[in-house]
Specification:
heterodimer, A: alpha+beta, 6-stranded mixed sheet, 5-stranded antiparallel sheet, 27% strand, B: 228 residues, mainly alpha, two-stranded antiparallel ribbon, 9 helices, disordered N terminus
Chain lengths: 444, 228
């Protein structure tokens, strides 16, 4: 934190546009100086004591001198984040990056401003007070520890003029939102997407057709272009052969985030379920968007949020912003059904469900998707090493039973044709995606 | 706290959320790569690099005085004023200096409360006891010194009342305050010298003239206040 004098032309937005100089009120110190000085003068005249008058002189002169520099207008303050004034808007930051906030204060005369931002633990900001002489910019630096939308503020600004003889009512700057985008972990995959269906892209189609990907040679048939003839094979066999190619297509990916339950977190020393899911979704989405695929984002929870597909860098930023606003379902809410929100999606889209499998509805949704013969991958986002919230006499047994039941659920899902794979970052889905692609090709 | 950064600063540690880009040189198509331009990415980056945009000179090392030191000075001035106003017999003992230190401590601990006024009134009372009951000479010079200490105590307490204990007072504020206070004390000394010379004249002012002069002085002060 530091304060910095600002150039006068960079005026801060007034926090109290309707305010006036009348807002300045005398403080207890001014009343004390007036009372004490007048009392001494009266005592000096009453007792005929010029020494008491000498004692009163600094108070009288000091009060007059100080009040001559009283401000003519109200102080102004504005919260700035991202170079612009924050007026209920949201500013973006990236996870693990520094968040800098500035409070611009401006006032006339000999004014002192005390800036007091409220604590924001998620942004690493502790409550504190910062004294500055306006015009100045008080800078507050924190760290965006975790993705999400965090509130910064409110910030209270107290202005005092004339060395504490006049005070202005506290200005309260409303809290500003800081959207911290998730930091995508490393993720690459060389596995084919099961059913690419678009017009152009990087995935090799399962069907032969016009394209640049050589798939082999086959006998010449009606409709084949002569320039497709593979002369080397033709000369060797004596029969006309043509080169066979496959078109390159893009794919549609549906990332389905299970937000029914949250577990773990910083207080347990491990990333939470949603931390894993959101960062994994960011990584998978970035990988596929970079390949030119269309990526949907959906929530499996009460809000049923979804982000329509798109490609390109701008769309990926929208995806990160969408992911940053992910919230777990409130405790005790049981209104969500067990049907995944995949209505209206193309049937060939690969569904990647990021789920901790803590709820039977998640398993039921996966089973329903498998029954619908959709290409499907379940990514287990339950963080390893998750500790219990409380320890009791039966905790070990209960945890063992719960883990057995969960393993049983995973096994049943695999029997139903749902590949379940734990999230390990780069390459963690390659093997399972190859299996899914093979199964999808066999079904055709 | 961080220093000013140049415009177009790249990300501090990573090229963006996709930090594991093995090549590093290839701009990520998806992640908010801070090296690229346009779109919300630029907005986010602008937010983190505002100082370069403003072009405002930075003052990286602004010195500041802890508020606790200021409170200590409040205590020292108040205690010194009360001790100076006490009869010498009182100062020689242990009880009255302890009382003065305690009252000074209360005023320093709660400068926004009534303890500051209580200390000032007690100081005047002690001065009256010293000069009336103990018959010490009511020297205007001593009275001016006590008044100056009381004024400094009052002014410091007025500032301390609005500054939280854990905050730090910037040095420019303190130098400006010290300049104003020094000017007030110098002007007070000049006024008191004139007052002493006037009182010391063989044909000094009669009580009626003193009242008229006092009223004129009060009117001048009121005029100065309304004109400011």
């Amino acid at each position: 934190m530091r304060s910095r004098r600002r150039t006068p032309e960079r005026a801060a937005a007034p926090a109290d546009p309707g305010g006036s100089a009348a807002g300045w009120a005398p403080t207890a110190a001014l009343r004390r100086a007036a009372m004490f000085g007048c009392g001494l003068c009266l005592l000096a005249v009453g007792l005929g004591r010029p020494d008491l008058l000498a004692m009163a002189v600094p108070f009288a002169l000091g009060t007059v001198w100080t009040l001559r520099a009283r401000p003519g207008g109200p102080p102004r303050a504005a919260l700035r984040l991202g170079g612009a004034d924050v007026t209920g808007g949201i500013a973006d930051a990236v996870e693990d990056d520094a968040v800098e906030v500035a409070v611009a204060v401006e006032a006339e005369g000999a004014t002192l401003c005390v800036v007091g931002p409220a604590a924001s633990p998620t942004l690493g900001l502790a409550a504190g007070h910062h004294v500055t002489l306006p015009p100045a910019m008080v800078e507050i630096t924190g760290t965006a520890h975790r993705w999400g939308v965090h509130l910064l503020g409110p910030v209270r600004v107290r202005a005092v003029a004339c060395d504490g003889l006049l005070a202005f009512p506290t200005l309260t700057l409303p809290a500003a939102g800081v959207r911290v985008l998730p930091l995508a972990g490393p993720f690459t995959s060389r596995a084919p997407v099961p059913r690419p269906g678009g017009m152009s892209g990087v995935h090799r189609s399962h069907r032969f057709g016009e394209g640049g990907e050589l798939a082999g040679v086959r006998p010449y048939g009606p409709g084949d272009r002569p320039r497709r003839i593979d002369w080397r094979t033709t000369l060797r066999t004596g029969e006309p052969y043509v080169g066979a190619t496959r078109p390159e297509r893009d794919a549609e990916i549906v990332l389905l985030l299970d937000v029914l339950h949250e577990a773990g977190g910083e207080e347990y020393g491990v990333p939470s379920v949603l931390d894993t899911a959101v960062r994994a979704a960011a990584a998978i989405a970035e990988h596929h968007v970079r390949q030119g695929d269309r990526v949907w984002l959906m929530e499996f929870g009460p809000r049923m949020r979804r982000l329509r597909p798109g490609t390109g860098r701008r769309h990926h930023l929208a995806q990160l912003a969408w992911l940053a606003e992910t919230r777990p379902m409130p405790e005790g809410r049981e209104t969500s059904g067990d049907r995944p929100p995949v209505a209206g999606l193309p049937p060939n889209a690969l569904v990647v469900m990021l789920t901790p499998l803590l709820d039977s509805r998640s398993a039921a949704a996966l089973a329903a998707l498998a029954r619908a013969r959709r290409p499907l991958v379940a990514v287990d986002t339950l963080p390893p090493g998750l500790r219990r919230r409380a320890t009791g006499e039966w905790s070990d047994v209960a945890e063992r039973l719960w883990r057995l039941e969960r393993e049983n659920t995973v096994g049943r899902l695999r029997e139903a044709g749902v590949p379940v794979e734990a999230w390990h970052g780069a390459g963690s889905l390659d093997a399972v995606l190859r299996d899914v692609a093979r199964i999808a090709a066999a079904r055709r | 706290m961080s220093g000013p950064r140049p415009a177009g600063r790249p990300g501090p540690r990573r090229p963006g959320p996709g930090r594991a880009d093995p090549g590093g040189a290839e701009p990520r198509s998806g992640g908010p790569d801070r090296r690229a331009e346009g779109g919300p990415d630029r907005r986010a980056e602008g937010g983190l690099d505002r100082r370069a945009a403003t072009g405002v000179p930075s003052r990286a090392a602004t010195a500041a005085l802890p508020s606790l030191v200021w409170r200590f000075l409040v205590w020292a001035c108040g205690t010194a004023a009360l001790l100076a106003a006490m009869p010498p017999d009182y100062r020689a003992g242990a009880m009255m200096p302890l009382f003065a230190a305690l009252l000074g401590l209360l005023a320093a601990a709660e400068p926004e409360g009534v303890w500051v006024l209580a200390l000032e009134v007690t100081t005047v009372g002690a001065w009256l006891v010293t000069t009336v009951a103990y018959g010490h000479d009511p020297s205007p010079l001593t009275a001016l010194a006590i008044g100056s200490l009381l004024y400094v105590h009052h002014a410091m307490a007025a500032l301390a009342a609005h500054v939280p204990v854990r905050a730090r007072l910037p040095v420019p504020l303190l130098t400006a305050w010290a300049g104003r206070t020094g000017g007030v004390l110098a002007a007070s000394a000049a006024v008191c010298a004139a007052l002493t010379a006037l009182v010391a004249l063989p044909a000094g002012p009669s009580p009626a003239v003193a009242v008229v002069l006092g009223a004129a002085g009060a009117l001048a002060v009121a005029f100065a206040l309304t004109r400011s």
